[in-house]
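Onboarding guide, step 5: your first structure request.
Type a short instruction followed by the sequence, for example:

Predict the 3D structure of this protein.
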Amino acid sequence: MASRFHDRRRSACAHDHRDQTSSASIILLLLLSLGAPAPAPARASEGGIKVAASADQPGASSGTEADAERQGREIMKQNDAQMSTHNRRAEIVMSLVGRSGRTQTRHLLQIAKTGKDGLERNHLRFVDPPSIRGTTLLIIENIDREDDVWLYLPAIHKTRRLSGANMSASYMGSEFSYKDLKREKISPEDNRYVLVGEEELDSVPHHVVDAFPVSDQEKDEQGYSRRRFWVRHDASLVSRVEYYDLDGTLLKTLVASDMRPVGDSGKVRFNTLTMTNVKGVKTVLEFRSRTINTEDPEDWQLSKAALGRP
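The system replies with structure tokens like these:
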């Protein structure tokens, strides 16, 4: 699910370097007057990140900018290779946790398959509680047109197609959006990835990569101005993501934990994903009985026609 995670533009500048701040402000005003997007400097004072010169730092050379983008894209491609599978299956426990600690628990079944064309079909179905049992999300990737995203609602026996801004809506009341559940496509037409630095999380070295939506479709679907990814050096897995709204304000944070190998697949995965918004409301996904690259599901099982079948 997120297996690949998404762009924001916030900066925390040093307080004592007023000349540098003034210069950066002049550059920013010039860019805005020309209709260019405002740069989002890496937050050098934040969280111990060792900042790398990037496309988002005032004064960076075009060579440095290109290098930062090339490195950022390559890091995300390595993550994509780690997350890619022929097929996968998992039982998922979803916990919706309010600010008071009150928790609602739901159970889902996930089945996904990647075809010979490299396109994935991802099927998520609620199996409990009874009030939402059978509610199913089906994501079908396409190469020559917009992906098909279908939501089956058993209470009204209707299938709804999701697209555009609908993708940024909450997935069944959780802190995950429908877009968050889609596979990250490492395409320069969709997102621009920039290496902004390095940081240790829990004593593990990570690359820090900012992602910015490029296409109008991607902007509509995401509803984010920037996402910041922390990608482990050792496993190329994303262990943290910050999501920034269209105003550049931190919206929510994803933290992954409990990394384990999955059977004999040669893959490793985090078994717990916790998405927490700035108000303290969170959604926890716990993956159980997970398998990778075992038995392929039948194509009909991952089709629109199969939605609503037991």
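Each response can be followed by summary notes, for example: DSSP finds three helices and 14 strands in the chain.
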